[in-house]
Amino acid sequence: MHSLAVFLRLQGRPVILAGEGAAAEAKRRLLQRAGANVVSEASDARLAIVAVDEPDEIVGRLKMRGILVNAVDRPDLCDFTLPAMVDRDPVLIAIGTGGASAGLAKALRQRLERLLPASLGDLASAMQRARADLRKRWPNPDDRRHAIDAALDEGGQLDPFSGRTDVASWLVDATAPSPNRLVMIQLASPDADDLTLRQARLLGQADLVYHRPDVPSAILDRARADAQRIACDRTPDNPGSGLALDLSMGNA
Questions:
Q1: CA triplet 197, 203, 207: central angle to 5 degrees?
Q2: Residue 176's pLDDT is what?
Q3: pLDDT tier at 154 (50, 70, 90 boundaries)?
Q4: How far apart are CA 69 and CA 60, in angstroms?
Q5: How many percent of the chain have pLDDT more than 90?
Q6: Which of the following CATH numbers is that of domain 14-82: 3.40.50.720, 2.10.220.10, 2.30.30.240, 1.20.1250.20?
Q7: How high is the mean pLDDT of the chain?
Q8: Could you tell me which residue, 249 or 142, shows the higher pLDDT?
Q9: 23-44: buried (b, 16+ CB within 10 Å) or exposed (e) per residue?
Q10: For the residues 226-246, what does the mean pLDDT come to?
Q11: Residue 246 to residue 130: CA distance in whole angstroms
Q12: pTM reported for the whole predicted model
């Protein structure tokens, strides 16, 4: 992973924009949409975007001041890059290539724009309003996460692609979270791209991932960031609470 994807809250914060012309104006519009206060190079700020033909000198000055810099069309000078974004406020989906190809990022954004329903923002807002009710219904965080995962899963009552956004009605009829379970997965290949849809979904949901030492890190990286990963020769008799996976290679 070449970069850490983050979302910055820029409302009312200064961001330096150096340059003129179409590229600079495009960045100005983007910053203003995010609520940033666009300022000149001489101003105090922590971020800067440089949109000039010869950015090296300006970038050097800014970096000497400890400012993180994006130089348009110069990924070698960038401390951060600006992804293509699908905006379903408050849902934001960012597509980045680390500066390798803005055209590819744009093509992916356009494809996702057609696939993702406009109701995503409404669903996110409804989930936010229901936070207190969700905590009351499932005081245990793991139970709450399992219930939400089931509702948002493909074919679930709140499947994001279904257009349904009535979280309150779902809460009335929501079933209890799935009991503790262990799922055995025998991998057909060390290539993460060869994971089946079911395997990828389970990795994204698992609480515990037991795996043989030869399971590649590229596959383990597909698991939830906060899922425990435990290398072992065999899964213990009591694998723990929630959803546990046992990963092994197909030739094991």
A1: 150
A2: 66
A3: confident
A4: 9
A5: 75
A6: 3.40.50.720
A7: 92
A8: 249
A9: bbeebbeebeeeebebeebeee
A10: 89
A11: 34
A12: 0.72
Which amino acid appears at position 220 of this protein?
L
Place of tokens 């025998």: 186
Residue with tokens 């043989």: 212
Where in the chain is CATH 3.40.50.720?
Answer: 14-82
CATH code 3.40.1010.10 region(s) in the chain: 181-249
Among 3.30.70.3040, 3.40.50.1820, 3.30.565.10, 3.40.1010.10, what is the CATH number of 181-249? 3.40.1010.10
Reading the block at residue 106, the tokens are 């744009």
**What tokens does 27 get?**
């960045």
Tell me the two tokens of residue 15.
């961001």
Q: Residue 17 to residues 24, 41, 145: CA-CA distances in angstroms?
A: 7, 7, 41
Enter the tokens of residue 86.
């699908």
Q: Kindly report, residue by residue over 184-234, the tens digit of the pLDDT.
A: 999 999 999 999 989 998 998 898 999 999 999 999 999 988 899 999 998
